[in-house]
Write a structure and sequence with these properties.
This protein has 317 residues and is an alpha/beta fold. Helices cover 35% and strands 30% of the residues. The strands form three sheets. A six-stranded mixed sheet has the order 5-6-7-3-8-9, with helices on both faces. A four-stranded antiparallel sheet has the order 11-12-10-13, covered by helices on one side. Strands 2-1-4 form a three-stranded antiparallel sheet, covered by helices on one side. β1 and β2 form a beta hairpin. α3 crosses α4 and α4 crosses α5.
């Protein structure tokens, strides 16, 4: 079978995996376009790692099909592996090797030789910020630098599909920003599957997100689409000057407000949170209520539901 020209880097149809009585993955169906950064989320035990292992040829499915750029991981395992770069969550490294020895070892396994391999290693030093660590033993690296080496080994053969399982583990805030920018840059050239529990990073980085729970798809869409599908309404943070008890009464009478909670009182300034049961904009009604009651207003801010809240709604219980 030749490579696919339909625009999809990955196609998963009816994917099922059983381990005895345990049904780990149940009838998964999804597609990932070429050049897309795709978030793959789920709580521990949801079936994410099992799915990644089937895609990367570590294990066969019980039933269903996978196509990586049109190739079958069972029938064309070697060709599929050549197209994939994989950073697993536990990032296994040979601690006695130096950074350069390890990248050379991985590159040779990938069939890269001579000046081309030296050039690729230098590229990885630059991309992953490893130049100063070239001669350092892997066992003596910090967790953040070990993650960088893991990213370098996943990318050294210039794969079409990059699978990153918890790539931000152990990175400090500056490193997280660097790796986020790197992933976005790579998304222009490659297809990226990004698994993480840092949902703010997923929301900031991914074009589209799939959430699975108990081996099944719970939701999919862009970050904005997922938050719009949430059952939670919009909340409003308000800071007003006046009588707090009058505020609680008058604000709770606004159509659409389900609850009013006082967060703090400082002199005559009262900070409140108004919760709603819908996504209808009631900002104007809150402002009018303040004007009608002659309250001073210093803050009015709408807070839409976060990806974290959507994730909790979909995966709890």
């Amino acid at each position: 079978m030749s490579s696919s020209n339909n625009g999809f880097m990955l196609e998963v149809k009816g994917l099922d995996k059983r381990f005895g009585q345990v049904h780990a993955v149940k009838d998964l169906n999804f597609q990932i376009r070429k050049g897309e950064i795709f978030g793959f989320l789920g709580p521990n035990g949801a079936g994410k790692t099992t799915t990644m292992r089937m895609i990367t040829c570590y294990m066969p499915p019980t039933s269903g099909s996978i196509r990586v750029d049109g190739l079958d991981p069972i029938e064309q395992s070697l060709a599929v592996r050549q197209k994939i770069g994989y950073l697993p969550e536990n990032n296994p490294l040979y601690n006695e090797m130096t950074v350069r020895e390890y990248l050379q070892f991985v590159g040779e396994i990938r069939g890269i030789k001579g000046s081309k391999l030296s050039s690729r290693i230098d590229d990885m030093y630059s991309v992953c910020g490893l130049s100063r660590m070239s001669g350092r033993q892997l066992g003596h690296l910090s967790k953040g630098y070990r993650q960088r080496v893991g990213l370098a080994q996943a990318m050294i053969h210039n794969p079409d599909l990059l699978i990153l399982d918890e790539p931000m583990t152990g990175l400090d805030p500056n490193q997280i920003i660097e790796i986020r920018n790197l992933i976005k840059k790579m998304g222009h050239e490659k297809t990226v599957i990004y698994c993480s529990h840092i949902l703010s990073e997923v929301s900031a980085t991914c074009d589209r997100i799939l959430i699975i729970n108990e081996g099944q798809i719970a939701a999919s869409g862009t970050p904005d689409e997922l938050t719009q599908k949430s059952s939670s309404g919009t909340s409003y943070n308000v800071r007003l000057k006046g009588d707090r008890y009058e505020m609680e009464t008058r604000l709770s009478e606004i159509a659409g407000v389900s609850s009013v909670k006082v967060q703090s009182v400082e002199n005559e300034w009262v900070s409140l949170t108004l919760s709603t049961g819908s996504k209808d904009d009631i900002g104007e009604a809150i402002f009018k209520c303040a004007v009608d009651n002659k309250w001073s207003l210093s803050e009015l801010k709408a807070e839409t539901v976060s990806l974290e809240e959507v994730f909790k709604q979909l995966t709890r219980g």
